[in-house]
User: Fold Alcohol dehydrogenase from Kribbella pittospori.
Amino acid sequence: MKALVYNGPGQRSWHEVPDPVIQDPEDAIVRIDAVTICGTDLHILKGDVPTVQPGRILGHEAVGTITAVGDGVRGVAVGDRVLISCITSCGRCEYCRQGHYGQCLGGGGWILGHLIDGTQAEQVRVPFADRSVHKLPDNVSDEAAVVLADILPTAFEVGVLNGRVSPGDTVVIVGAGPIGLAAVATSKLFSPARIIVVDAADSRRKAALERGADLALGPDEDVEATVRELTGGLGAEVAIEAVGIPATFELCARLVRPGGTVANVGVHGAPATLHLEDLWIKNITITTGLVDTSTTPRLLSMLAAGRLTLPGLITHRFGLDEMQDAYDVFSRPAETGALKVALFGEKGIE
Assistant:
């Protein structure tokens, strides 16, 4: 089969690799029908995630069809159409028993495209299949489902739920990429008074407004003064960091009011300064997190029932063998206008 292989910082290739095989009774082999590229993959290519070794097949979010299962798999079968979660779960360790699957101690957690070969390939081996894939309803398309593999539960759990978004809140989301836009969509489930998005790119600010943000601010505007003016001088109840660079985290810490919450979602490859000389007296809560995907069944149910809409998150579509072109487009969003790209295998194209 062919796959997208990480060859070290700044290097990737699409070439022939061995087909995956069942290695454990709880494994499934899944043919990839739709897959996407994550901002985390770009961080890996920059060298920000040193635990990813050269030779690794990247990718951790996909939809596919099961072609083989191990003897220990009970909940899914060959022929099932499934969502592959970005997080795998052993289901037995202390963290999994608490629903913190991202911290799995039994060989799961974020392993696809990280510690084992991932989904940007024609096939993938998924460990702990009974707890790491989700059967898809017929009325949920591959394209709609693929955003539930990572970005939607990440924005919801690590951003909105960790941030404790509540009715009437002012929510500031710094970063209007796919995660930021998914945070807009899932914040709206809690009826905040206003959602303010901050991003440097005109196209992404426009996308945020089209997808439900009340205000979108750019680098030429005084973001701090605007947020204070709209909140009676207090600041936002919730600031969600969805970029992953020091400047955006530090901006979030300045935008939040006393008693508020900064929910960090971005993947950081460099240290950020925590200004405790200002924050120590303000009762600020700062949260970090790796998604657990514990909310994926709930989000999938809402999507199938028409209670959750994901307008236009996928902006560019490719065939699976156009992986290199898809990376090129996704890595240059200011020029291409890309939000989220989706690649489809032969079944998806049909």
User: Anything to note?
Assistant: Residues 151-163 form the longest helix (13 residues).
